[in-house]
Design goal:
The structure is a homodimer.
Chain A (H helix, E strand, L loop, with lengths): L5 H8 L3 H9 L17 H17 L3 H12 L1 H11 L11 H20 L1
The first copy, chain A, binds a DNA duplex through helix 2.
Chain lengths: ~120, ~120
DNA sequence: ACAGGTCTGACACGCTCCTGGTAAGGTTGG
DNA sequence: CCAACCTTACCAGGAGCGTGTCAGACCTGT
């Protein structure tokens, strides 16, 4: 049988069993389960856990960072909003209706004026 | 003159002066400086600070997250490595030679055996 | 059926992040 | 020259992350 239990998987990957559960909770590597609920780690999962470790070491990342990267793939709206913000000259955000956006644009100068004359 | 000092900018953007310095330190919004070193916030910076706040509120982000997104733009190698990792079906990791991979597959059972007899 | 392995959930500790505050010193404008 | 602002560099305290460990219940192989 090519599937390992969680402690065996921990041994071969260098993570602790605790961390394997945590990694799964972050959505980074989730293993299939046996009928009774045991986690079963196959070659694919082991591979993923190994390369995950390499990834962290190579680029000085933390699990939370990879979790955020995952969130970026799952929420294209978020990725798009960040893209827009990083474009130096920000236009209108995707999900803001024109009226609201214009109000904001006006309000900007408004508040600046009231500030500088206050 | 259309440039504000840090406390004025804090007023109009809703950040604290302390946070404006922190945001600059993260590399998210850095302002030009006066000859003597005072930060000068122009419309472009104020705009950026405003939209930054919207961004955080809209997507439940934190400054560190945006900082990480910035890092992704600055380090294409990092972004590429993450891309690769997220490609779901990883066969052999790019940088692990076949011999090593096979050794691992064998070693797996090996180490489990030696473990249990140790 | 018994030993040992697994499950979830919780508590705890150390560490970093976020944010505020303060101290010591330079700048500016009246 | 003095008040009021700015600068950098620290310390502090609450919140969240990474990790271990324990408890109580369930599963498995001999």
């Amino acid at each position: 049988m090519a599937t390992l239990t969680i402690h065996e998987a921990a041994q071969t990957t260098g993570w602790s069993a605790r961390m394997l559960r945590y990694i799964e909770q972050l959505g980074l590597v989730d293993s299939p389960r046996s009928p009774s609920g045991y986690r079963l780690y196959g070659p694919a999962q082991l591979q993923r856990l190994r390369t995950l470790r390499e990834l962290l070491d190579a680029h000085d990342l933390e699990l939370g960072d990879v979790g955020f990267a995952l969130r970026l793939r799952k929420e294209p709206a978020l990725a798009g909003a960040l893209d827009e913000w990083f474009e130096a000259s920000p236009r209108k955000p995707v999900d803001v209706p024109d009226a609201e956006w214009l109000a904001f644009e006006q309000d900007k100068h408004q508040s600046l004026l009231t500030r500088s004359t206050a």
